[in-house]
Design brief:
Distance between the termini: 28 Å
Shape: elongated
Number of helices: 4
Strand order of the largest sheet: 1-2-4-5-6-3
Helix content: 25-40%
Radius of gyration: 15 Å
Order of helices and strands: HHEEHEEHEE
CATH class: Alpha Beta
Largest sheet: 6 strands, antiparallel
Structural class: alpha+beta
CATH architecture: Roll
Number of strands: 6
CATH topology: Thiol Ester Dehydrase, Chain A
Number of domains: 1
Length: about 140
């Protein structure tokens, strides 16, 4: 099962929004939100909450891709999130997430018995390529002990 399939199967909100996990790799994750009238706001674009969920889902996909091999000893958890809405989003929106720290550095902290935190940055783009939002989610790997 791919990371996208796993997230779609285990995260009800991802299924509700019909998120499409386009790319899930340790270097980058891309998730798409189709244009769906049920999730529009008052101006006909995707609701801010749907865009937040899209970005957070992309950040979760890259965290699982980068640290999936650590799940036997640590649980990934979102610590905080910040989003800025830059332009009106209309139609389908795509979120692209990248790790803000090298994965090896995060794992080294975990190896030392620490609880590492690391940012994931996300760009939200509409179909014409314009950036409609920017987001940062800070994650941690909480040791299982």
């Amino acid at each position: 099962m791919s990371i996208g399939e796993m997230l779609a199967a285990t995260v009800p909100m991802a299924r509700t929004l019909n998120l499409e996990f386009v790319e899930t790799a340790p270097e980058r994750a891309v998730v798409a939100l189709p244009d769906q009238g049920d999730f529009h706001n008052h101006v006909g674009g995707p609701h801010a909450g749907a865009m937040f969920t899209l970005g957070e889902s992309a950040s979760g996909a890259i965290v699982l891709a980068a640290f999936g091999d650590q799940l036997t000893r640590a649980v990934p958890l979102a610590v905080s999130a910040q989003i800025s809405y830059k332009k009106l989003a209309m139609g389908p929106v795509t979120a692209t997430a990248v790790l803000g720290r090298p994965a090896a550095d995060v794992v080294a902290e975990l190896d030392r018995g620490e609880r590492p935190e690391f940012p994931v940055t996300i760009e939200l783009r509409r179909a014409d390529g314009a950036v409609t939002g920017e987001m940062t989610v800070v994650w941690t790997l909480r040791p299982n002990n």
